[in-house]
Amino acid sequence: MNTRTLVVFALVTALGVVLGNAYTTYAQSTGEAQAYKIGIVDLQRAADSYTKLADQIAAWQQEADAKAEEIRTMRENLRKEFEAFAAERAELSEDERYDRETELDQHALRLDAQEREVRAGLDRKHRSIKSALLKDIVEAVEAIGQEEDYHLILEADPETRTGVLFHASAIDMTPKVIDRMNR
Q: Taking residues 126-133, what's their average pLDDT?
């Protein structure tokens, strides 16, 4: 088990103990039994089904593809310039060769810097989209939790263990979250 899994498992276990003790104390002090309402949400499934995200990701992907094509074209043009220089190199004086090599090297460095800048901008935009998505999911989960009197809502992802090792499908509220977000 990795460290994250152990920490999450410890937190979930501690939460279970605390809730169990709180329930026992409450039930003993009042003489009444109370059922807790617990739900789980698969964040990845909610994200994948969020139509607003799909539109934003499609627009981001289209922009990324256009930028990649632009850079590919610029790299191809630079390659052709290097080939042309190699073909005429023997006919140039030493100073002309030096100037042309320096010019091509500077062009390559500018292109590398531009490519890094474009990638950084696309990465920032992608992180922003993901951050907004998580905010929307959490708001939907909180709203449903309050409206439907949930006591505890946990994240459950079948791909990565998040502390929920098993859950009955009856407590899976992911479809409710998806419906709320896509309204």
A: 89
Tell whether the model's pLDDT for residue 75 goes beyond 60.
Answer: yes
pTM, rounded to two decimals: 0.60
* Cβ neighbours for 156, distance < 8 A, ≥ 6 positions apart: 40, 41, 42, 162, 164, 167, 172
Q: Distance between CA 43 and CA 162 in Å, rounded?
A: 11
Question: What domains appear along the chain, each with residue ranges and CATH number?
Answer: 1-36 (no CATH), 37-181 (3.30.910.20)
By C-alpha distance, which of 139, 171, 162 is closest to 44? 162
